[in-house]
Amino acid sequence: MARRGGYAKGIAKREEILSTALDVIARHGYRGASVKEIADAVGLSQAGLLHHFGSKEDLFVEVLRKRDEHDTAVALTAFAERGITGALDAFVGVMRANADVPGLVLLYSALAVEAADPDHAAHAYFRDRREIFRAALAGGIRQMQDDGALDAHLDPDTLATAIHALADGLQVHMLIEPGLDMAGVIQHVVGALRPEPRHDEGGRA
Questions:
Q1: Locate the HTH tetR-type domain: which residues (predicted)?
Q2: pLDDT, tens digit (0-9, with 9 covering 90-100), for 93-127
Q3: What is the dihedral of CA 104, 110, 116, 118, to 10 degrees?
Q4: Cα separation values, 13 from 40, 48, 69, 114, 151, Å
Q5: Is the CB of residue 26 less than 8 Å from the CB of residue 20?
Q6: Which residue from 45, 76, 162, 204 has the fewest beta carbons nearer than 10 Å?
Q7: Which residue range(s) make up the domain with 177?
Q8: CB–CB of 127/120 below 8 Å?
Q9: 33: which DSSP letter?
Q10: DSSP structure class, residue 203
């Protein structure tokens, strides 16, 4: 029983660390977020904090996973309520919210580049995340094509890859151009892919 209680406390502490790290990184950015500041905020030594994760890099990967959990929950709720349209709106909402947390955007963008090295702690996270995201987005695109809401000639997998790459690229641009409307760009691109309404001979849609 004692071991089970200790395990539960360990999980709770880990969640507290991740929530605190999210806040610290959002405020101070990837470069400015120190292990010491996060450790102090949760009442641990630096060694005690890293005991829960292994390394600073592993901690940052888990911070991104924590953020993904929230974003995924929002998207799933929107999908359940309004189908793929709701899920796309949730995606746009995530991009809009990201503009308010440049520290987390910098963390994501910096690790995405570093994770190109197969030996990097974040490599598997980004590889798996992209596969899951592209598959989900491609499925949504197919549904929109079946519903007549998207051009049927577009390849879903290619388009999903392009939209994902656009979202990642926009986050890098936003770090250089803070006023960039990332959500607006995504909305414009998706809107441009929708088929033009057909008109009958009398000019009616």
A1: 11-71
A2: 999 999 988 889 999 999 999 999 999 999 999 99
A3: -70
A4: 13, 11, 18, 28, 48
A5: no
A6: 204
A7: 54-193
A8: no
A9: -
A10: S
